[in-house]
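Hi W., the guanosine-5'-diphosphate complex you wanted:
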Amino acid sequence: MKSGFVSIVGRPNVGKSTLLNSIINQKIAITSNTAQTTRNIIQGIYNDDNSQIVFVDTPGIHKPHNKLGKILNEQAYYSMDGVDLVLFLIDVTQEFGKGDEFVLNKLKESNIPVLLVINKIDKVKYDTILPKIKQLNDVFDFKEIIPISAMKKTNIDDLIQTIKNYLTDDIKYYDEDTITNHGEKFSVSEIIREKVLNLTHEEVPHSVSCMVDLIEEDKRSVSINAFIIVDRESLKKILIGAKGTMIKNIGILARKDIENLLGKKVYLDLKVKVVKNWRDKSSFLAQELGFSDFIE
Ligand code: GDP
Ligand code: MG
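Structure:
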């Protein structure tokens, strides 16, 4: 038995969430084209016959520009403490930049072994990867370098085998069937939020939130009541869309992913609610809507 904690770090949009999802084979971390959609550190847990790897997905380390960015950053640094290994993820199509340098400098201070994972190799010809490897090897003392495609699941098995060599523990931290420590409600709300952000692009800000309640019907189906919470009428209008097409499409896409996640038939009742300054009164709001807890 080998086990340990692994942190995935890198600039926004390099594919951290996508990688986590393809390793765990479940929709647990939100992925989108917009930077910084992952506001929470989500632990995905990989299990096989002789190992357990607990992954910490970070919001992407970057230089903070505002208060939210600063909080995200603190979470990202924090997630590096106490991990056995860091996967430093880059996008092969992007030039190595100040952002990467910033992250690597932080890693130099930490003494944790770092693997360089070069992602999105499906987007380039193979012979462009080697110069990239040479260039990056000069900047940092990576333990190993592994080219992958998180999306096409290329070399993911290799990556997992390599990670195992750096795990230092030999106990199982979590039950076999624990996929994420945030539970199903959180995963469901993240899926809905992902669809909202993907379908509405820049029009709807990241402050949109979701509340979900799962009502178990039987072993094969589940009813879900979900509210998308926004703080102004104009956003509600966008989310409903002309003749309700937007909310309908969000529902269709979300339901498909939730069914995959839960392995059951899903009945999804999705509504949009406007609550001014909901952040200040989230717990009251939960009560008012009849939810046992508030999941942002
Ligand atoms: P994060 O911000 O680092 O978590 O990045 P995401 O996982 O959200 O991915 C950002 C974008 O890159 C999404 O549109 C993904 O679909 C895309 N992406 C991630 N991995 C790959 C890959 O291996 N190949 C390609 N072509 N696209 C990818
Ligand atoms: Mg992400």
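The longest helix spans residues 183-200.

W.
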